[in-house]
Amino acid sequence: MINLLVTLAVLSLLVGTLACSPEPTHAPTLDLPAFVPEEAVAIVQSRLRTTPTGDGNCLGLVHAIGRHEVSNPSWSAEYQGRGAWEVRYHYQDNTVGWHLFEATRSVSLIPDDNGTRYVERLSIIGC
């Protein structure tokens, strides 16, 4: 009986020593997909449900807005991802102009002799 107890004690010490081996265990290698930047951007855009709407025509927009006399102008903007915004200009007569840009914008509104307001200057960086 004592031999059996000694044998069990020795076996438990051996098993404990083997289980706590000082040799490092290596983390399993993960099989992750690799993406080029364009693929990664497309995946993120699909997750965010955004798509680029394309390039705008700066000269045409400046010309069209600069020539219209409007009252109560307003604008709205929607972020398109990758630093681009879609900006819509709204006027009282329901005409709309739009443009994509990737930097800052500056719009000057100047009253004319009749009291109506019009866009004097539109400075867009990144057209």
Order of helices and strands: HHHEEEEE
What's the Cα radius of gyration? 34 Å
Number of strands: 5
Beta-strand residue percentage? 25-35%
Written account of the structure:
- With 127 residues, the protein is α+β, with helices and mostly antiparallel strands.
- Residues 55-70, 93-108 and 117-127 have low confidence and may be disordered.
- The N and C termini lie far apart (92 Å).
- The protein has three helices and five strands.
- It has helices spanning 2-19, 37-48, 58-67; strands at 74-81, 84-90, 96-101, 105-111, 117-124.
- The protein has a domain at 54-124.
Entry keywords:
127 residues; alpha+beta; disordered C terminus; 31% helix; 3 helices
Short characterization:
The protein has 127 residues and is of the alpha+beta class. 31% of the residues lie in helices and 28% in strands.
List strands and helices in order, with pairings:
Blueprint: H1 2-19, H2 37-48, H3 58-67, E1 74-81, E2 84-90, E3 96-101, E4 105-111, E5 117-124
Antiparallel strand pairs: 1-2, 2-3, 4-5
